[in-house]
Amino acid sequence: MELLGIFNRIGINSMMGVKGRGCCFGSLMVVLGFIVLSLSFLQMSDKCSLQRLKKSYVVPFAQVDSVNDSRPQQQIPLMEETSKTTKFNSSTIGDDSIDCGPFGFLGKIIPPEHQYQVHKGSTNERDRSSCRSRYEQHCFWNAGDYSPSLEFQTALRDYEARHRRCINGHNMTAIFLQEEKMPEGCQYVLWKEWDGTGNQLISIVSAFVYALLTNRTLLITRDANLHKLMCEPFPGTSWLVPTDFPKIEEKQKTDRSGVFYKSITGTTKGNGSIEAKDGVGGEIIKLPHYLQIRIYHSQSKDDIRFFCPTEDKIHSHIPWIIFWSNNYSAPGLYLLPHFKKVLNLLFPDRALFLHVARYLFSPTNDIWSRITRIYDSYLASAERRIGIQVRYWSRRYEPQLSTHLLMCAIESGVLPNLVKDEGVVSSTNIMDEVAHKNLMFNQQDGKHMQIHHNMTLTNNQQTNFSKPIVVLLTSLHREYVDTLLESYVQYPNVLNKRIMVMSPSHEEKQKTGNLHHMKKVIADMWLLSFMDEIISSPKSTFGYIGHGLAGLTPIVFRDWGPKDHKLPKNNFCGRTNMPGPCFINHPENMDCPLDPPSVKIGDLNFEVPELRHCLYQWGIGVNELNTP
């Protein structure tokens, strides 16, 4: 109705303008008016012709490596959008809305209430050109109607003000080293990187949510080079520690939370304060200046006591919390009743990861140029965009996983079935044959198959030029791309559709710490989040970022892995029960020694309705309200 109202107002205002001019002039002016209208019509015709030319132009396929060009992106041709036909301009939609028309999404606007930082047109305190993705990326996400709550937006503005107050004008190195006093009313969470890029991003989301709930200020270390991958998220300040900030290392075990928890006993006084005592001598101990929190894949049972109520009260008296994690631990915060109440207020739809990640993460301009260049060249004109994310913890290509992923895509209806001379096939015979040929090719030539994308323009013996189904396959190994593409080049499909398969990068192995590699990883994650459907590998943080940002509940591979080269007979995959990441190494049936015996974390499905065990995955996740 709002869009219809805008259309009506545009039409009415235009008519009134013409009518008003007609009523104010005599016959001579009427003649002049017709001349002006004629010239305007000719000019409009030229513009319409140019617009039609732009809309019909499709960027030709090229080698993907050409997208490495880091020069500023030129104005891209407008791609035709099947369901959006009306282009808005800034004067029509208002300065506070984002017009997605220039990026190929004609008629799509992002109103202020759907933004995490309202851009306020030309008056924004930060120049939009310094971080284009902060606003443009919202045009590319297309799943669902995810709007941040007013409470979350208010909390973000309060946090941003606190961040500026607790950071700007202070020597953070001297404060951390206790050479200067803590600013009044300020405490800090210092995030420390651990493992790959996906692990880092999901753990930063968790650290920020914790900072938001505890009125702390989030800082990140420089070691991960995240400042070279993402724009600064907080206006008028920085979340990066100074260059002279000491490196965070595990020098003393007593700095680690699990060791600290184990060494103390605690009692609650009448006024609600906590008295921490030495568990051996019973003497009241001085709380540390900082505490290292460890939440990771091989944590101890004492480390996980971070989620216990009394331990959380002790944290409130510790100035610095150093957050080491490779997990998405934010779901664990729902285990604490006082946090759960606030989280339900901030995220009434429970799409916690989506809202926080979309707010925090905006790729730098060079990465964003790579993302949009790939999207415009290969994905914008597609009838449907399919993302397949392949991750298995092996250093080599596993041919049976190629079979698994094709059968999953066909079984779930994401890709059409293949056809041989004798008819439709539903077994793995075709894929086994293609995989065998691919393996033999690699052994003979000692290199990967290089199937050019334009080969798919004539696959399935088609002569029509309908919009293709484009598969974006992200993997460290190129063979998964080549084998899937060869399947649809060699055989027709039941829908007689053009199937294109592309991969932005194939690095062969994970190169954590390599900046060039990490930029490609970020680009691939964001492209995955722009898909219409996603098939993902279980337990993959890369996949978590893709479908978590998109707000899509993915299809997940089942019984994933070689397993002595045996594939399941059916049920190759299934749709999981939540879009966001899973907390893999989560607390369950856990005692909290400093709390009364009744305080115990049990079956999450029954005791914490906001959480669910992840289907076809490991761990627990937030039970979003728009998922089954």
TrEMBL record:
Family according to the record: Belongs to the glycosyltransferase 37 family.
Topological relation to the membrane, as annotated: Single-pass type II membrane protein
Statement: the UniProt record of this protein carries the keyword Glycosyltransferase: yes
Keyword field: Cell wall biogenesis/degradation, Glycoprotein, Glycosyltransferase, Golgi apparatus, Membrane, Transferase, Transmembrane, Transmembrane helix
The protein's name in its UniProt record: Fucosyltransferase
Classification via Gene3D superfamilies: 3.40.50.11340
EC numbers for this chain: 2.4.1.-
Residue spans crossing the bilayer: 21-42
Function recorded in the entry: May be involved in cell wall biosynthesis.
InterPro entries noted in UniProt: XG_FTase (IPR004938)
Pfam family, one: XG_FTase
Keyword Ribosomal protein in record: no
Subcellular location per the Swiss-Prot or TrEMBL entry: Golgi apparatus, Golgi stack membrane
